[in-house]
Amino acid sequence: MRVKIIYSGFFLLFAVIFTGLFFLQVIKGGSYRLLSEKNCVRLMPQEGTRGKILDLNGKVIVDNNLSYEVTLLPQKNEKVDSTLEMLAKALGRNPAVLKKSFRQNLVSSYLPVTVASNIGTHSAIILEELKADYPEISVATRPLRHYSYGKLASHLIGYLGEIDRWRLTRMADYGYNTKDIVGFTGVEERYDYYLRQEEGGTSIEVDHRGRFVRILGYKPPQNGKDIILTIDLEIQKIAENCIGDKKGSVIIMDPFSGAIRAMVSRPGFQAQSFVQKDQAAIKDLFSDESSPLLNRAISTRYPPGSVFKMVVAAAALETAKINPSTTHVCEGYYQVGKQKFNCWSSHGIQDLMDAIANSCNNYFYQTGLSLGGQAIHDYAVKFGFGKPTNIDIFNETQGIVPSPFWKKFTRLQGWYNGDTANFSIGQGYLLVTPLQVVRMIAVFANNGFLVTPHVVAKIGGQDTLIWRKKPSTVGLKQSTLEAINAGMRKTITSGTGAVMAQLPVEVAGKTGTAQVFGSRTHGWFTGFFPYKKPRFVICVFLENGGPGANASMMAKDIIDQMCREGLV
Amino acid sequence: MKEVFIIFIIALLIAVFGVISIYSSNYHKEGEPWQSIYKRQIFWVCLGALLFFLMALSDYRRLWDWAYFLYLFVIGLLLLVFLLGAIRLGAQRWLHIAWFNLQPSEIAKPAIVILLARYFSKKTLFELSSSTAQSGFLRSFFIPFLFVLIPAGLIIEQPDLGSGMLIIFILVTMIFAAGVKLRYLLILAGIGLTSLPIFWHFLHSYQRDRIMVFLNPNIDPLGAGYTIIQAKIAIGSGGFFGKGWLSGTQSQLHFLPESHTDFIFSTFAEEWGFLGVGILLIFYFLILRLIIRAAEMVHDPFGKFLALGITLMVGIQILINLAMNMGFAPVVGIPLPLMSYGGSSIIATFFSLGIAASICRSSNYA
Asked: Which secondary structure element, helix H or strand E, spans residue A60, and what is its range?
């Protein structure tokens, strides 16, 4: 009887074991199979190189240098410390630092550990020769982003860094992972998908100690696509040199296609600091009060001042409030209600051409008041203000174009004639970006078309033309354009931009001095050249840079140098 | 005679499973001694087969006379281990003799089974339970306990807690089968349970770790829990059809420790899958079923007890080993009979199966 109990217990346990095995192997077999693969399959990544960034003529602006680094394969080496000491001697570095980086970077014995990076070519050759005695050492190359011209076009190009959480959530669907190096701001960010290399690698089988057993497969890395900018490196260099250390921006653009030939924003930054992980320099960039990472050409908005007068003039001509020979008398001020609105001088009798050339506020107060705030707003929008230009880099701001409705809605206040008067000379609530200004001036240069500015011409040999919006007509009469262009030409020959009269190329343009409450004025100059057959539009903007004359001087220097180098 | 061959063929097949798994588990290990380890196992299996027939063809009743001698012999061996045993893996379990290592605790198992079988049966009595059921505490309980406690204590001291507990468990089960008054067993259970905390105190720290990780392997996944986790992965990843011979990554790449001894089952299960494991379990089941049938058929109480003891000895080892491979039991040093590498275990198992075959043979005549 008792024996029977023992035997039954026995078979019951056998049945339990059998069921357990069924559960373990058949039902949960799949998940255990994955675990066993995770145990023994490792990926040795191999990086491709990120796409280069070139200028219009194929000159390299950003490429990748090979940097040498020393790696140590732990599985071959039992006496790591002595090898590291030898290495330190050969490289002339502190052995304690090498030991520390070895400990920090050690992941698994099958992966080479980087102990020192950025070693010179000379040291690399020395170490290659030592390889016979120390087979565990190898010199590996790693592509490192290299900026040949330092700060040149830093905002336009952008910088590289480890992907942040915000970008990761947006881009995870496109195959981005944590720890990926991605572009921040500029072309690097906007075209990251094309520039980025695809990581390849070798999948290997390892044993319980992580030692290499055999190769399972290999996937070659893919290099990123090269990007050709619309930027002309020579023009960019001239613009960079002329602006020097002044705060502000310079944009030079092709008026017909909207291709940006140069775009400078100051202060700039060294993108190399991000590659070299120079933490002190990066911290300075983020804490600097002058915001060196800010692209002043597209990301900040300013009152345009007198450069806005062309929009008012065009609106008045189109709506027949004035004709080119309409005159107003400037007495140095204009009375709107109880308030006196000043002109910067007392110009006397002015027609439209004179008013543009002399930047006569009085003329535009009267013209603007005859138009009314809403009409100026409508034409400002037609010229592309108050909305993004859709340039192909991120972080563009759209500015503000006020209107009676806008004021009611946002300020809960009525629109007064004083607002119209301020609006007429580009002051008051109006805020624009330098890029919007250059796009506005291109309308006069290209016979009435609003273009889409862009900085990238080709991606991996493929022209980006097919993706771009075609220029759209603003719908201005030929006579309007001619009258305003004549006024802008007169600005250069005998008006506020007379410093450029002697240039070998005929320039047409407009200066602007924007009042800033409680601070120094912003200086503007915008124009196009050659006058007869425009090839470039230019906008020089100096933040708190004094009167427009300063900007004109800088524009003169830029155009002068471009002429001398035969670029016009 | 038929049963003798059936038992032998099945046992041999299981041993072949063992040899190919040992071959596989050391296939990628470096060094000649490791790679030729399967040859040693073949040698032990051959020796075991000889011993099997020697026992199967002779009369198991002769063991009656040998029981005490065997017992004393084993005690002597265990004492020798205690005095001059080889220390491996932190335990003193082996006696180095000539070119092999003897593990006396393996031999102790059949010796104690034989002793107990003799103790509980009377040569002249046919009624199995009559002798012990009426005898008192001393005769039916205390003396056999003392007999077993000496070798068991020596084994636990090695330390080999698993084998020691196994022997005690066989003893208790045999006392139970012999018809000892239930209250003795209940008293024993009571004492056992109340002394658990004290017992815990006397455990080695690694033994405590093993019990802790058995309860939750993830408290120490790279230390004490590592083996359990890796064994489970090995078994589970085999799936239904297995990964194929020499293709089990867990054992080939040495993620699985002790893959040719205590964890040979995981190696086998990984490469042959549920299909292979099912066949293996059926084989074990068949052998045990044959011995149990012999125990039921034979009229000799000594034979009955002997068959029962052998069933318990082999069966419990199988169950515990499989359970520990699957993570159902804490890791203890109990080999899988007929499969795990180790001469002592193979010899002892074949020896015991030979006795069982002999009982089968005689039960048919009766």
From this structure: strand A60-72
Q: Inter-chain contact A36–B237, Cβ cutoff 8 Å?
A: yes
Does A15 contact chain B (CB < 8 Å)? no
Which residues constitute the domain of residue B130? 2-365
Please indicate whether, in this complex, the C-beta atoms of A32 and B232 are within 8 angstroms of each other: yes
Compute the distance between CA of residue A10 and CA of residue B316 in angstroms, rounded to an integer: 8
Tell if the CB–CB gap between B311 and A10 is shorter than 8 Å: yes
Does residue A42 carry a pLDDT above 80?
no
Contacts of B35 (CB under 8 A, 6+ apart): B26, B27, B29
Q: Which of A552, A438, A565, A446 minimizes the C-alpha distance to A502? A: A552
Q: List, for residues A236-295, the tens digit of each pLDDT value.
A: 999 999 999 999 999 999 999 999 999 999 999 999 888 877 788 888 888 988 889 999
Lookup: tokens for A166: 């915000």
Q: Write down the mean pLDDT value for chain B.
A: 85
ipTM of the complex: 0.90
E strands in A405-461? 449-450, 456-459
Q: Say if the Cβ atoms of A25 and B326 lie within 8 Å.
A: no
How many domains is chain B built from?
Answer: 1
Residue A500 to residue A522: CA distance in whole angstroms: 20
Taking the Cβ of residue B311 and every Cβ of chain A, the question of whether any pair is shorter than 8 Å is answered with yes
| pLDDT of the residue at A374 | 94
> Which sequence spans correspond to the domains of chain A?
47-229, 233-281+303-564
3-state secondary structure of A211: coil
Is pLDDT at A561 greater than 60 in this prediction?
yes
> What pLDDT digit, counting tens, does each position of B94-135 carry?
887 777 888 888 999 999 999 999 888 865 444 544 555 566
Residues of A in contact with B295 (CB under 8 A): 3
A47-229 has which fold?
Penicillin-binding protein 2a (Domain 2) (3.90.1310)
Residue with tokens 């470096």: B30
Q: Which 3 state secondary structure label does DSSP give A514?
A: strand
- Residue A536, classed as helix, strand or coil, is strand
> pLDDT at position B366, please?
47
A49-86 residue pLDDT tens: 899 999 999 999 998 888 888 888 776 556 777 788 88
Threshold 0.80, pTM exceeds: no
**Calpha distance A49→A196 (Å, rounded):** 8
Q: Positive or negative CA dihedral for B227, B233, B236, B238?
A: negative
Distance from CA of B99 to the nearest CA of A (A): 31
State the Cα–Cα distance between residues B234 and B242, nearest whole angstrom: 10
d(CA A62, CA A424): 43
Closest chain A residue to B181 measured between Cα atoms? A2
Q: Which architecture characterizes domain A233-281+303-564 according to CATH? A: 3-Layer(aba) Sandwich (3.40)
Q: What is the overall mean pLDDT for chain A?
A: 89
CB contact under 8 A, B239 and A207: no
